[in-house]
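The protein record now logged underneath.
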Amino acid sequence: MNADADTDADADGNASAVTGPPDGMVDARDDLTPMLSQYFERCAEYEDALLLFQNGDFYQTYCDAAEEVARVCELTLTQREDSTGTYPMAGIPVDNAATYVERLLDAGYRVAVAEQVERPEAASGLVDRAVTQVITPGTVVDDELLGTGTTNYVAAVTREGETRGVAAVDAATGECLVTSVGDEAGLYAELDRLAPAELLVGSDAAVDAAALAAAPMVTDHEAAAMDADAATETLSSYVARPDAVVAGDAERRACGAALAYAEWTQGDDGPLEYVTRIRRHDPRESLGLDSAAIRSLELFENRGAGASETLFDVLDDTACALGRRKLDGWLRRPLVDRDAIEARLDAVAALTDDALAREAIRDALRAVYDLERLAGRVSRGRADARDLRSLQATLDAVPAVLDGLADVDAESARLDELRERIDPVDDARDLIERAIRPDPPVEVTEGGVIREGFDDELDRLRETEREGRAWVAELEARERERTGIDSLSVGHNQVHGYYIEVTDPNLDRVPDDYTRRQTLKNAERFYTPELKRREDEILGAAERADTLEYERFREVRASVAAETDRIQAVADALAELDALAALAAVAVDQNYARPTFHDGGIDVEAGRHPVVEVTQDRFVPNDAELPPGSVSLVTGPNMSGKSTYMRQVALIAVLAQVGSFVPADAARLPVVDRVFTRVGASDDIAGGQSTFMREMSELTSILHEATPDSLVLLDEVGRGTSTADGRAIARATAEFLHDEVGATTLFATHYHDLTGLAEEYARVRNLHFAAERAEPRAAGSRPAADGDDVTFLHRVAEGPASSSYGVEVARMAGVPAPVVERSRALVDGAGPETNGHDEGVQVTLSGVGPDGVDRAADGDADADDEVDADLVATLREVDLARTTPIEALNLLADLQDRVDE
């Protein structure tokens, strides 16, 4: 399995000095000690990973790898010397390895863990070591390295013609998703929804990881692993008919590659038994949210300085990790099927109306552990006794969950279905209860795990051990009385076993049946025939008991693993119930209303921004009445609430299609297929894109992909270039959305002359956010500085804004007074209010208006203002109905160049 990553390989794609066989050992390869030779071999087997080589209580690394581990993990670098040379060495403690492995993963390395696979005392010579796990960012399974309630995917991408196959596996829970998309934009949107930690890319499917929000590690996967035949073979070990779960070769190859990679990293020769949920989905069956929408709506990450609250934070009132992961998935893929949405809303409504039942369910769910990850560990044979007890504690909570569900009064088909799906898995629960002690040790090979009474032979061995130890415990008193030596003591150590210790001054009183075992500086140690017999009996019973106990534990674990399908099914049902109960709790706490769906436009009464309202002391609700296909031009000052208003409309739509109640007094909504946002931008220096170029790229995607069922948010289109160009682009965009796309659009702008479009186009309307300026103290004079404030009302109203109040906002922000006064003088000297953006200048060439009529022909225009007739002719020949956005931009650039000439 070849898996080269940039951080692990040199420019030629070869393993680096940190990974692969150590350069410092190559010359002495044939003369290395057996242990170092074994280390060298394991490094060669996993040349793309940094090898951690167990040696007792530490994972050791050598040579360049040791120097890198010492640097990344902030460890002391030591050295090992032998006849072949001196080798740098750094060790990671086995008991605390997770902390250091996490640092190595963050540094961009894969980590191969070579563990001792036999006991030192049982080994004949060198202890054998084998790589039991390869840890990569996308295949982490240890809870210490994973966030609570998170999903951690490794995704694979392949390509067949224009079809891109995408598959993702969560190695910790066994979830596997597969789909396909038809173009590059769809690919990036799907990957942004998945947010994989690692990406396997075939040679035929180039992916620019820098363009993805999650910035995953990229692995150039070997071609053989993505071969269609190999993928079919891999998939066949999971499902009887691969064609039933995948559509086409692209999906088959991607799914097979992702599963094979997961198997390789987990050290399994065959299929991962706990991967039982291979699910195909169609991106068109969920609300489309690309990276721009996820980012600008701040669904999972807040972009504000020092801010932390996101929409997910507001919704996440889940009681357990299962529900948190489920809710995250719902928010990444809101529904578009109205019946499915209503079914979720019915369930949320039922839980909202019954507070007692809801809280009883949530109380029971708080005792639920991460059952999906537990099932994965049990199935992989890596669960310890505490994991089994956690699984049992979760199943113990199921009856209380069912009781709470039974108490819900309102009707809900979804809740009824969950009642049927929630299986207590009584046989597995009872087995764990009978077999495993309540508070078992972490180590499962040293005893203390199996309950007394579970196995008769084990009980007999433990009784023999206890009796022997009790006899030894009484031996000291008996021998003191028999010998008259008051300082005599009985003890035990791992090397010499049990002994009777007598100090030198009392050696003359030692009985004849004592046999010398060890000489100390001031004492001698002895044993008796009976003590030796008891020692053999105790140690023999203890060793056989430990071995038998481990066997019984493995049998119990295997029996529980056989119920993996049932356990995963109940985990999924509990996850869904927790997510629904969380949405109900948030709806009650935040006074949300149930949305209704219709075939009309967006109609929201007293809507609120779900995040802003919980982070601010005061929030002003606003109505939103947006007819289907309307383009609403939103004007008003900065800081007045335009962006917040636009986002809250989109968030209400998203929440409703998640199946959540919404922050409003009432909401009547259509089901939208996509939410597009063009809100804010920044330079992409690494990608070679300026702010304006990124803005235009996002705008291009919107104008190409939006449909009449989409919701589009545009904020300040065209602000990254000259005023004339920007205004022209903004106007052309609004016209195109109105005439060609028909999407419901909110378009915030400071180009106030665009508001005139409402008089020319049927579905263009004006909205504005009002502000109040303090009245001057005397006619014709400006108010004093303390009266020059602008009050933002944060209320939306019909019609265009009268001013952008840019100078006033600048003063309130602390811009120096001379700059403010000079700005004010320039604005006043410009005549009518232009808001600093030349709104009084007509965006026409030679007086040509939007209807194509040459206004200049009605009067004697100055010769310097006339434009060549060929430019006018060019404009008149343009077929706006068939001109694409990029063609329109190219035409504008060409016209500008000709005017400049």
Summary: The domain at 456-551 is CATH 1.10.1420.10 (MutS, DNA mismatch repair protein; Chain A, domain 3). Residues 529-561 form the longest helix (33 residues). The chain has five domains: 23-135, 153-285, 309-451+562-590, 456-551, 596-775+789-827. The radius of gyration is 36 Å.
